[in-house]
Amino acid sequence: MSENKKEQEIVEALKAKLGQSLLTARIQKPRRIFATVSPSALTDSVKFLMESHGLRHLATITAVDLGKDIAVYYHLIGGEITMNLRADTPKTEPKLPTIVPMIPGAELYEREVYEMFGVIFEGHPDLTHLILPDGWPENVYPMRKEWKTDAIKNEIAKALGEKLE
Amino acid sequence: MVARRAEEVFLEMAWEVGLLALLSALIYPGIIFLVVIALFYQWVDRRFYAKLQNRYGPIYTGPRGILQPVADLIKLLAKEDIEPSAVDKQIFRAVPVLILTMPLTALFMIPITGTWALASFEGDLIFIIFLMTLIAILAFLGGWSSTNIFSTLGGMRAALQALGYEVPMAVSFMGPAILAGSLSVSKIVQWQASHGLWAILLNPLGFGIVIVAFLAELERIPFDIPEAETEIVAGWQTEFSGRKLALIRLALDLELVLASGLVTALFLGGPTGPIPIIPGIAWFMIKTLVLVLIFSNLRALFARFRIDQMVSGSWKYLVPLSILQIVMLELLLGWLSF
Amino acid sequence: MKNLSENTFSVPFGPQHPALKEPENFMFTVDGERVVDVKIRLGYVHRGGEKAFEARTYTQGLYLVERICGICAMAHQLCYVNNVEALIDVEIPRRADYIRTIIAELERIHSHLLWVGVAGHEVGWDTLFMYAWRDREVVLDLMELTTGNRVLHASNTIGGVRRDLTSEMISRIRKGMKLLKERTNYYKAMIPKERTLMKRAVGVGVLKPQDAVALCAVGPTLRASGIKRDVRRDDPYSAYDETPFDVITYDGCDVASRVLVRVDEILESIKILNYALEHLPSGPIAVRLPRGVPAGENVSMVEAPRGEDIHYLKSNGTDKPERYKVRAPTLANWPAVGAMIKGGYIADIPIVLAAIDPCMSCTDRMTFTEVNSAKSWQWSRDELRRYSLKWRGK
Amino acid sequence: MAMQNELVKSLAKKPATLLYPFEKYDSIPGSRGKVVIDITKCIGCGLCIRDCPAFALEMVGKGPTCDMKWYITRCVFCGQCVETCPRSAIIQETTYDLAGAEKAALVIEYKRPKSS
Predict the structure, then answer these.
(1) In this complex, is the C-beta atom of C33 within 8 Å of any C-beta atom belonging to chain A?
(2) Phi/psi at D99 (nearest 5 deg)?
(3) Which of C215, C364, C387 sits opposite A160 (nearest CB)?
(4) C-alpha span between C328 and C47 (Å, rounded)
(5) How far is Cα C166 from Cα A93, in angstroms, rounded to an integer?
(6) Domain residue ranges in chain A
(7) Least buried of B286, C26, C122, C130, by fewest C-beta within 10 Å?
(8) Residue among B234, A130, D34 nearest C40 (CA)
(9) How confident is the model at residue C386 (pLDDT cuts 50, 70, 90)?
(10) What pLDDT, on a 0 to 100 scale, did the predictor assign at position B3?
(11) Which domains does chain D have, with CATH numbers?
């Protein structure tokens, strides 16, 4: 375990900082950490990781449909360490605080997660469509598991008021 | 009887002279001849440019692709002519026709076969400069009447660019004019022929400036700013299509002939040369071809300037240099006359 | 359209525009020739790739992932196989690692040479474009020789590589590299001397180091702002832990630096290639693996020619992934483009856009495909027309 | 002006481009081109169809008596089928000029001889 010293350090520091809010933390392999935090502690933990451990580069934000919940991963990178910070949010009312004020580069990623999964990022400066067209039917979030391609097609047809081939 | 015969002879002669003038204006060395060499020079330009870039260029139509420009012209003439609903129709239709007449008219004042041009009068050099300004203004009008955002930008750029190159070009034209003591292109050619001295020898700087200015006039790299493909699509020509585009393209080719013809006449002694057996037209072709090759070579050599760089560069360097050239020429003439 | 003075107007770039080789829309607000603001709209080449992964087996995914982008095909595929192999927890043969490195570096050279040409084209210097692309043919021929395809190499398989390098191939790669080294050195010496090009590149599209970090820029764009970050060094994969190379950085923060970073990186790639060819271990090139992948999740990163490429894989133990997320380098660089362009000239837009080496299909990476019937539904022309009329009417 | 020497050198050189339809480049050995199925070797296991990422192969009929169809327009020339086939019945040639003007001509059928 001595080889993963830096990883250990980050996990320990995160534990000390967040306490109860840190739900899980594991070192998957050298240079890769997976941690889950409660949504309320998300901004704090991102800020903490940025400022005290130099994890300043947000590689991307990934959302995964888990059935009941949507898991949102923030891949934070500093030097050789990649921290995969996860926060779960219920699918019925998916909501997370935005991290754009801390990391301006997160803007496009949050918009992408918003339109593909319907996660609302509270406080985001411009949460509008980035990839999907403007006339996209409401409440159709194509990357969610319940949306099959046929169903999406029907929704578009409905939105257009016409039947597509 | 005698009087009547004299009248007949006179009428016949007038008829013949008139016919000759008409034929020379229409066919040789008039419109048809000019269009043919314009298309020929386009082919030379394209082939040479391609060769410089280590590729073939036009190759299929005609021997070595020599008919490609003709094929392109016919193709464009046959294509659907689309007129967007938002354009200012009158200007939009007039621009392609007018822009074609400008270089043609100007070419009539340039000696091609001998030391006399088809049309020549004192001050025709000024008239040519005026016509070339009109080309830039027509480009601006064409862009403006299209109402397309790219066309408008292109038109504005064309006008701005004209502000940049016109002054140094006009000043540099004055070099040969001072030498010959005339503002007629034909007389400048005659002066060079009679003195056996090309104006380039006394105006090397002016020659360089004129070449640069013509690159800008012809909208060629590094000054293809008004039609910068990657920035504003096709610039002021964006909305033109079919016949209109064909006319504009032809006008641009004729402009190349005008540019090389005018530089030949002003700086390189026009259609005359040291070997008297070779006819004037051959000298004209040789000299203009060399100039076309120089133009294509320069086109392959540079990246495009930005409009602000072009205008400021022109006023910072070209204008002072052109004035310097005139001052040096005057000093030289003064020294010679002593 | 609010908050704009009367002097400003909007210039659309795209979806179709000669400066953009792929469709994407940028709305620039300009004042005269100056750019005031930019709005980016993506998705014109969105192919639903991430959804498609969920309906494909891991073997089929191997080829789908390449089609995210034709130029970074190897980088994406490498990232994919790294992910899958990490979940299966298998050590692949060292020779395969080296061959992957070789192909990845060949791809980098091809991509950077292509970019040098495109950069020349964007500022109107087509001659540079023609020459750079001519030289790039050398790499493409080597690619065809080693993998069988000029682009979209299909060279990896889960558990190794598909084709071995023969000694004849190695000697031909060496010969090709010698030629390319000469050519790259020529460009390296020539480009800073060409004043018209430098006039368009120096001080244009400035991205300050602190902005580059805050906006999460990646790859040569980041390194041209003086920040030493390269996945190959920070998080080594394949054979990069053994191959010596320098991470190139320049401090100019402008387009010129981005050109020079890429030209220098070609030289570094040639160095890596020569080392890898010299030290190529012997042994098998692949291990046979079972078809299923155990449940779990993994993140892998690869330094694609355009920058850091990150893939996330979640497996549920079947032969199809539960979730596959791709973030291609270009998407990461868009926010930085906004910062570079504001305050610049319209004339500078193409070169600044090109300077990050954008790859729109990478960005969008996603036709909805009905996997079962193997039919993709596309809109007929009539439908498209009706659709467009509909939206125009609104 | 930095490139002038190079440009002058080019004048003497043969152009780097090919006059394609008239002048073809020699295909490189190992290049992935046309997919050819030796139908007599095929046992109709369907593995190639399962692995094909582009749905470019189709089985007509079932089992060892099936015929095969190859859709050129769908094929991505990855060569996975060649690798998958347990009987090595599929090979890839280096032929690369496979374009055609008619869609129907872009489906190649590999039919079993009637006698077997």
Answers:
(1) no
(2) -70, 150
(3) C387
(4) 14
(5) 58
(6) 2-105
(7) B286
(8) A130
(9) low
(10) 61
(11) 34-116 (3.30.70.3270)
Confidence of residue C360 (pLDDT cuts 50, 70, 90): low
Average pLDDT of the residues in C181-188: 90
Contact between chains at C145 and D79 (C-beta distance less than 8 A): no
Contact of C366 with C326, CB cutoff 8 Å: no
Q: Give the three-class secondary structure for A122.
A: strand
From chain B, the residues in CB contact with C358 under 8 A are: none
The predicted model scores a pTM of 0.84
Number of domains present in the structure of chain B: 1
- A104 preceded by a cis bond (ω within 30 of 0): no
Q: Per-domain residue ranges for chain C?
A: 49-364
* Chain A neighbors of C312, CB-CB under 8 A: 60, 62, 73, 75
CATH class entry, domain C49-364: mainly alpha
Asked whether residue B47 is assigned to any structural domain, the reply reads no
Q: Does C17 touch chain B (CB under 8 A)?
A: yes
Provide the pLDDT confidence category of residue C372 given band limits of 50, 70 and 90.
very low
Give pLDDT tens digits along chain A (165 positions): 456 788 888 888 888 888 888 888 888 888 888 889 888 888 888 888 888 888 888 888 988 888 888 899 999 888 888 888 888 888 888 888 888 888 888 888 888 888 888 888 888 888 888 877 777 787 888 888 888 877 887 877 777 765 554
Residue C268 has pLDDT above 80, yes or no: yes
- Distance from the Cα of D88 to chain B's closest Cα (Å) equals 43
Rounded Cα–Cα distance for residues D85 and C60 (Å): 15
DSSP run (H or E) holding C296: strand C296-304
Cα–Cα distance for residue pair D57/D35, rounded to 1 Å: 10
Which CA distances in Å does B144 have to A11, B239, C117, D63?
64, 11, 33, 70
pLDDT for B251: 92
Mean per-residue pLDDT over chain C, rounded: 81
Cβ B150 vs Cβ B227: under 8 Å: no
pLDDT surpassing 50 at residue C274: yes
Confidence at residue B224, expressed as pLDDT on a 0 to 100 scale: 82
In angstroms, the CA B250 to CA B229 distance is 19
H-only helix segments in chain A: 5-18, 42-53, 107-117, 149-160
Residues B255-310: pLDDT tens digits? Answer: 999 999 999 988 888 888 777 788 888 888 889 999 999 998 988 888 888 888 88
CA distance C196 to C185: 20
Query: Residue D66 is which amino acid?
Result: C
Architecture of domain A2-105: 2-Layer Sandwich (3.30)
Backbone angles phi, psi at C8, to 5 degrees: -95, 150
Is B120 contained in some domain? yes
Find where tokens 């534990």 sit. A15
Residue C153 is encoded by which pair of tokens? 């190499």
More confident residue, B229 or C315: C315
Name which of D3, D32, D83 is nearest C149 (Cβ-Cβ): D32
The 8-class DSSP code of residue C317 comes to S
How many residues can be counted in chain A?
Answer: 165
Q: B235 to chain C nearest CA, in Å?
A: 12
Question: Which of B306, B147, B162 lies closest to B236 in space, CA to CA?
Answer: B147
CB atoms within 10 A of CB C23: 16
* Domain assignment of residue B274, given as a range: 79-337
The rounded distance, in Å, linking the Cα atoms of C284 and C95 is 7
Q: What is the number of other CB atoms lying within 10 angstroms of the CB of residue D41?
A: 12
Task: Name the strands in the sheet holding C25-31, side by side, starting at the edge strand that comes first in the sequence.
Answer: C8-13, C25-31, C34-41
Please tell me chain D's helix, strand, coil percentages from 3-state DSSP, rounded to the nearest 5: 20, 15, 60
Please name the residue that has the structure tokens 């539904």.
Answer: C377
Residue B321, in any domain of the structure: yes
Yes or no, beta carbons of B54 and D10 under 8 Å apart: yes
